[in-house]
Amino acid sequence: MNYHLYTSGLIPLDWTFAFFTVTEFKERIKKKAAENQYFFNNTVTDPERLLKQVDNLLIEAEQAAKDSHWDGVYRDEPLIFAIPAGDTNILKGEYGGIGTALFGIIIKQDEDGDTFIYSPVELKHLE
Hints:
Blueprint: E1 4-7, E2 20-21, H1 22-35, H2 37-44, H3 47-68, E3 79-84, E4 101-108, E5 115-119
Antiparallel strand pairs: 1-5, 2-3, 3-4, 4-5
Helix pairs in contact: 1-2, 1-3
């Protein structure tokens, strides 16, 4: 899957309270999987697999941000967001297909508040 990196430049994203941190999201995965393991394993995926995919996505996002101009210092913990995948099959088995979600990462640089958004879909309004 091709991801897109957007940087905020002069308009940093300050509404970070609207998103889960990656840590919060991973804890939520563990909690939801424990509440209904059968549903989670059969509808979502193996929780350990999903946690690993989130870790890998964060590594990719960090590298893309560094390749842009991120200095590697977080202002806040990295954030994650979800976008409904609809009826597409673009995930090719990564998370499933119909009824799933695509995930993106938001990194906020400490020095100047620049925001790096690593998105699975184009966000034309951020170009």
